[in-house]
Specification:
The protein is of the alpha/beta class. It has two domains: 3-138, NAD(P)-binding Rossmann-like Domain (Rossmann fold, 3-Layer(aba) Sandwich); 146-340 and 391-397, Dihydrodipicolinate Reductase, domain 2. Helix content is 36%, strand content 26%. It has 14 helices and 18 strands. Strands 7, 8, 9, 10, 11, 12, 15, 16 and 18 form a nine-stranded mixed beta sheet that branches. Strands 3-2-1-4-5-6-17 form a seven-stranded parallel beta sheet, with helices on both faces. The N and C termini lie far apart (51 Å). The relative contact order is 0.17. It binds NADPH dihydro-nicotinamide-adenine-dinucleotide phosphate.
């Protein structure tokens, strides 16, 4: 029936595969491949213990298009779910085209030597996927992913137009380490050290990284400092919500995180250009990743909650004037760990990846070509968030953020 191949056995891949196994009516045959096969085997063991479902595992270097094509052909999945790193996106898209499989990911393609966070490389695959009669769904994680679905749900049910949009991503979790990142450290640090960009009056406005700071009182977490930064869904939201006057993305960071990051940046450890050490070329940020805790290892010790949502202001659908709505999910690290063996940052990404895959496999979302989350009906996805561990709430606020 619905055969799926997941590539990438990190925290996000682990959650997605566990949740797929918990929905056997949709995912009848699950395959997991990654660079280090022992990580796939460990996930398969945990899935078997928790759900009784058997998962097939494989070693693959997804940078190798020919080998990945061969693997996809030999398994014959309807869908390949790419939960490796953004560097592999184009190679896996090429392999899907060659082998005739649909494609889904949670992060846009990134060249290794530049932190860009732009969609144009993947949007350029539009004609190829269309010609092949296949669908590629981009950015089906939480942010990007659910944050765009939230905005489109508000646009469908509450607001005729969205004039102002703020996306607030708070991780109130404490992992007990002096410094660690909650998902892949290399991608996380590239994102945080890049200049901030927000959408205003038809263009992106750039400001220095971590230059704009505000405090916000997050339900379930309490007051936290959040920093304006660039995040890739701003690009697709600006494209598919042309009426947006302003769209901003905020993420919380504790003082200790900022302090460590500042020192690492000042000493050059976050550089992504190669340096020669003892005759060998190394990329400082990749070396740093090797000495930092693996995000997956933080699961057992992380306590607290994540709170991610959208605050949107615009003309109300019912003609009652301008209204502001806040739509969000709160996720508990310990509950996420108890269910899948992974903390909430992996959980809040892996569950939407599974739901996006379910949308494609059940035909609730279909099409030929490359799609962003904004282009598809938010309702069935929102329904599954409620039943699959990421329930959401919506409330009316007095007005937009005062800053
Ligand atoms: P991890 O680093 O924990 O896992 C990545 C996995 O991909 C590892 O198992 C790694 O293998 C594997 N991998 C890396 N390179 C290759 C390759 N060439 N071929 C095959 N497998 C490879 O990352 P996360 O699980 O935290 O994140 C996964 C993805 O999710 C990333 O793209 C990240 O950007 C995205 N993400 C999206 C979010 C969202 O809300 N949209 C939020 C958080 C993450 P190995 O074990 O050998 O290193």
């Amino acid at each position: 029936m619905s055969k799926v191949l997941v590539i990438g056995a990190g925290g996000v891949g682990s959650v997605a595969v566990h949740k797929m196994a918990m929905n056997p009516d949709i995912f009848s045959d699950i395959h997991l491949a990654s660079r280090t096969v022992s990580k796939c085997v460990a996930i398969a063991r945990s899935v078997k213990e928790r759900t009784g479902v058997t998962i097939a595992t494989y070693a693959i270097d997804a940078d190798d298009v020919a080998a990945t094509t061969k693997l996809i052909e030999s398994i014959g999945p309807k869908l390949v779910v790419n939960l490796a790193l953004p560097y592999q996106d184009l190679a896996i898209m090429d392999a899907c085209l060659a082998a005739g499989a649909n494609y889904l990911d949670t992060a846009n393609y990134e060249p290794r030597d530049q932190a860009k966070f732009e969609y144009h490389w993947q949007w350029a695959y539009q004609d190829k996927f269309k010609a092949a009669g296949l669908m590629a769904l981009l950015g089906s994680g939480f942010d990007p992913g659910v944050t765009s679905v939230f905005a489109m749900w508000l646009k469908k049910h509450k607001l005729k137009t969205i004039r102002l949009l703020d996306i607030l991503d708070c991780n109130g979790g404490d992992h007990g380490q002096a410094f660690a990142t909650n998902f892949n450290p290399e991608i996380n640090i590239r994102e945080v050290t890049a200049p901030a960009r927000h959408w205003e009056n038809g263009q992106f406005v750039e400001t220095p990284a971590m230059g704009v700071k505000q405090q916000f009182d997050f339900e379930g977490v309490g007051p936290k400092n959040m920093y304006m930064m660039y995040h890739e869904e701003l690009e697709s939201l600006a494209k598919f919500l042309p009426e947006l006057e302003r769209a901003r993305f905020w993420m919380t960071f504790g003082d200790a995180y900022i302090q460590h990051l500042t020192v690492l940046q000042n000493v050059g450890m976050t550089r992504i250009d190669p340096v020669t050490y003892n005759g060998v070329e190394i990329i400082p940020l990749q070396f740093l990743k090797a000495v930092l805790p693996e995000p997956a290892s933080l699961g057992p010790t992380t306590k607290g909650k994540t709170n991610i949502g959208d605050i949107a202001t615009g003309e109300a659908l019912d003609g009652s004037g301008e209204k502001t709505f806040y739509i969000k999910n709160i996720c508990d690290h310990e509950e996420a760990y108890a269910e899948t063996g992974n903390q909430a940052v992996s959980y809040t990404t892996g569950v939407p990846a599974m739901i996006g895959a379910a949308m494609l496999l059940t035909g609730k979302w279909s099409g030929e070509g490359v799609f962003n989350m904004e282009q598809l009906d938010p309702d069935p996805f929102m329904d599954m968030l409620n039943t699959q561990g990421l329930p959401w709430t919506v409330e009316e606020l007095d007005g937009p953020l005062s800053f």
